[in-house]
Amino acid sequence: MANKGLAKFWDGVNSGKMRIVRHYMENGARPDMRDGGGRTPLHYAAISGLIDMAKYLMAKGATVDVQNTIGLTPLFYAARYDHLDMCRYLLETAGADISIEDNDGRTALHLAARFGHPTVCRYLLSQGADADSCDNRGHRPDEGENFFANVDDIDQTEIRSAMAEARSKGRQRVAVVKAKIRGEETGEDGGDALFDDALFSKDVPVEVPVHSDRQQEAGDASERQVDVVLASVD
């Protein structure tokens, strides 16, 4: 495809000109072709929040978790530019992986927080994003030097609140799981429901160590020390 035609194709994707995009796709353009920065058409659709374009590209075989040269997937761009509906589409319909890290160890949650988008942060957390995930510098999504530069105070407060709530919820699940496995009283109504939620939650993996045959034959279950390892907790 000639360079002039290629430029028109990328412009069509970025501006949502479906007729132009369809024309070039029917004449040799590929859904996973890349620009100089390794971005695909789906990256551009995510940048602009163009859900219909994203759906069209996915139907044509686009890869939802494709990473550009610095490791960003379309979900990163949707989060960075505050496109909540695009985040929903990529995660709930297209099956994007929320845990992917870029070349700096950041997740989509890092970008949503860094650029001051509390609603997207809360949504990503509700979908299993890890508030304790650290980038290559050891910074969690709401940490780092000059982290909230150009983010207003209200958004800063909301983002920090969302992160704190997610971390608190994770620790509560740890306590409930440990208490129930050890047969202790939780002191709360609905303890069984909390236990089930913690044990089977997609964002709180639980590992129960396997005892040896001798332990299983000899021991009273109530006397065994069972530890629960939850990856999302400090």
Automatic annotation (TrEMBL):
Keyword Iron carried by entry: no
Classification via Pfam families: Ank (PF00023), Ank_2 (PF12796)
SUPFAM superfamilies: Ankyrin repeat
Segments annotated as ANK repeats: 37-69, 70-103, 104-136
Keywords from the named record: ANK repeat, Repeat
PROSITE patterns found in the cross-reference section: ANK_REP_REGION, ANK_REPEAT
Gene3D superfamilies, sorted: Ankyrin repeat-containing domain
Name this protein carries in UniProt: Ankyrin repeat-containing domain protein
Species for this entry: Tribonema minus
